[in-house]
Amino acid sequence: MIVSVVIPVFNEIETLSQIVERVRAVSLQTEIILVDDCSSDGSRELVQSLAQSDDIRAVLHEVNQGKG
Length: 68
What we know:
- By secondary structure, the protein is an alpha/beta fold.
- It has one domain (about 1-60).
- About 25% of the residues lie in helices and about 30% in strands.
- It has helices at about 15-25, 45-50; strands at about 1-10, 30-35, 55-60.
- The longest helix has 9 residues, at about 15-25.
């Protein structure tokens, strides 16, 4: 069984790598879905870089969607 973990991202350059590593440390098979909401601090580029891994998918919003 694969557990899907969806992580919303908006200007999280300081914490994103740590969050991903914590999810990977769980002893379950996971897929990580990073949803970037038009970040402006470099998070978007980090999401794209992390998505090169087989266990991470990126969803990139072109316009900030806000909450909800």
